[in-house]
Amino acid sequence: QVQLVESGGGLVQAGGSLRLSCARSRSIFSIYAMGWYRQAPGKQRELVASITSGGNTNYADSVKGRFTISRDNAKNSVYLQMNNLKPEDTAVYYCAAANGVGRPPLDYWGQGTQVTVSS
């Protein structure tokens, strides 16, 4: 059974920072894409950032320059550093993973972690 476990969410004031972590249960994910998505109340889930096995990254326009995705294959983990947070970043953040080479990170999901940014 594949598991993704997120941590690091919480309440922060606008302009503050948080670092989300996602630990995965299978080392095979070291060669597959990983990503972070978020879903705000009443809105669809959206991609925040993704990273390939080679380290290529992709970001939503709304977070470019503020968020950084990274991965540590030795620790089977992926991270999302979030700086200069805004109230509109408030959402449940989900870690996701692909189950094959070249696939987008949509196959496995964590349980989500709440991020709340106060103004």
Strand content: over 45%
Number of strands: 11
Helix content: under 10%
- Strand/helix succession: EEEEEEEEEEE
Q: Quote the distance from N terminus to C terminus.
A: 40 Å
Q: State mean pLDDT (0 to 100 scale).
A: 93
Report on the biggest sheet: 7 strands, mixed
Q: What is the 3D shape?
A: globular
Q: What structural class should be given to the helix and strand makeup?
A: mainly beta
Can you characterise this structure?
The protein is an all-beta fold. It contains no helices and eleven strands. The chain has strands at 4-7, 10-13, 18-24, 34-39, 46-51, 57-59, 67-72, 77-82, 91-97, 108-109, 113-118. Strands 2, 4, 5, 6, 9, 10 and 11 form a seven-stranded mixed β-sheet that branches. A hairpin with a 4-residue loop joins β7 (67-72) and β8 (77-82).
Please specify the SSE layout and strand pairing.
Blueprint: E1 4-7, E2 10-13, E3 18-24, E4 34-39, E5 46-51, E6 57-59, E7 67-72, E8 77-82, E9 91-97, E10 108-109, E11 113-118
Parallel strand pairs: 2-11
Antiparallel strand pairs: 1-3, 3-8, 4-5, 4-9, 5-6, 7-8, 9-10, 9-11
Describe, in short, the structure shown.
This protein has 119 residues and is mostly beta strands. It is built from no helices and eleven strands. The mean pLDDT is 93.
